[in-house]
Amino acid sequence: MISRNTKNILVVSFGFLLLFTAYGGLQSLQSSLNAEDGMGVISLSVLYAAIILSSMFLPPIMIKNLGCKWTIVLSMGCYVAYSFGNLSPGWASLLSTSAILGLGGAPLWSAKCTYLTITGNLEGQKSNKKGQDIINQYFGVFFFIFQSSAVWGNLMSSLIFGQDSNIAEIPEEDLQYCGAALCYDNFTNTGNTTRPAKSLVDTLVGSYIGVGLLAILFVAVFLDNVDRDLAKDFRQNKGNQSFCSTFLATFALLRDPKLLMLIPLTMYSGFEQSFMSGEYTKNYVTCALGIHYVGFVMICFGATNSVCSFAFGRLAAYTGRIALFCLAAATNLGCLLGLLYWRPHPDQLPVFFVISALWGMADAVWQTQTNVLYGILFSANKEAAFANYRMWESLGFVIAFAYSTYICLSTKIYIVMAVLALTMVTYLYVEYNEYKHPTAQVSYDMHNPEKDDLKGANEKYVITQSQL
What angle do CA 211, 29, 391 make, to 5 degrees? Predict the structure, then answer.
């Protein structure tokens, strides 16, 4: 019999699995499906620019007023709007729905991270275990389930697009434009970028809309509102609090030197994810194999990411974070060096999957351990901390997608490697500082901890201010 807290983690995880089965599948296809004039990549840049804007203000206000559960539900609706925009893709529909999704993106992820951190600490005190270890396990479980969304979303696209009767073999002369070896004048159109039949695209997008709506219903019905009393107290007493201090909490946290030193690490998360979903899928997979192979390659990425997220969430208790971050950095560096000199060809099919698998393993570390690191270092300001996380990660996405259609692929690879190097220097400094001056942990005052109905329990937590 699983505990109430574990049940809630599973509900959050499967809710995100359903939602990102739709969004993740669309994101992987944007650079190839809407390649004309770089429309797909530019829409993704707008999307993450909107996330930056929303990260500055919305998460603390929404979470404190609505609570984590209803912030998640409302924000999920913004993601479904993006799927509707892809039913009839054009500059107006894609850019407007990208902006809507962006506004909901930061509150969604901040609420999720806050929910997992609260629940992990509650479970830690209930079971007399270290809250940090429980949080690590919960993030591992979440990303194990969540990252598998890449499997299901891309499987849907591959199976549906595989029915296209217009699939043609890519001419040998077109393969010279694939990879990073050749810098060409037309950055937006390479290789086999033929758009599948409209009926197939409509079928896929309609399926994604249905899955997204199911995610909203699932979370709204089954997720417990663990911070309901806190949100209620905030709404009742907000007249006695400084609205500006809450509204600007994201910026106020920037005074913390630890957060400033984590900015390169957080931005790198955006750089490396955008490289896989934008550059690798377009310039290697679509260019050399065709758009119908994008889903299969990203399935490999998602499956590896999912399994490694679960494994690293548990392994971190034995190896520590530093060893895992170094493993991820070495893996990404090796892949980037290989991509610089590899000339992709259909005869080298296994290589496409090996690279995506290695990238998925590294991404599992960046996602699980960076989220855990934020939850531990900024336990006194979780909402603002995770809002900062989304803001700086999104800035990495925006920069990477913004220059995608203007510079050579080899230059993009060098940029990612430079950001990776800076990331490891600043991250290791943060770990050294944390070793010398450990952050005070969250303590909880739980009433009726044995009561099974969490909705009826008066569970409140008292946060100890973290010390630098």
Answer: 80
What end-to-end distance do the CA atoms of the chain give, in Å? 40
DSSP string of 392-416, one letter each residue: HHHHHHHHHHHSTTTS-HHHHHHHH
Helix (H) or strand (E) holding 462: strand 459-462
**Taking residues 453-459, what's their average pLDDT?**
34
- DSSP lists the bridge partners of residue 327 as none
Cα dist from 211 to 77, 287, 382, whole Å: 12, 29, 30
Domains in the chain: ranges and CATH = 4-224+249-460 (1.20.1250.20)
Confidence of residue 31 (pLDDT cuts 50, 70, 90): low
Instruction: Choose the weakest-confidence range: 94-98, 189-193, 384-388.
Output: 189-193
| pLDDT the model gives residue 131 | 67
Q: How far apart are CA 94 and CA 31, in angstroms?
A: 13
Over residues 133-173, the pLDDT tens digits come to: 788 788 888 888 887 887 888 888 878 877 766 666 677 77
Is 80 exceeded by the pLDDT of residue 370? yes
Please identify which residue in the block is written with the tokens 């894609």. Answer: 94
**Which DSSP letter does residue 438 get?**
P
Name the nearest CA neighbour of 371 among 392, 389, 394.
Answer: 389
What 3-state DSSP class applies to 4? Answer: helix
- Separation CA 190–CA 192 (nearest Å): 7
Dihedral over Cα of 152, 158, 164, 165: its sign: negative
* Helix, strand, coil share of the chain (percent; to 5): 80, 0, 20
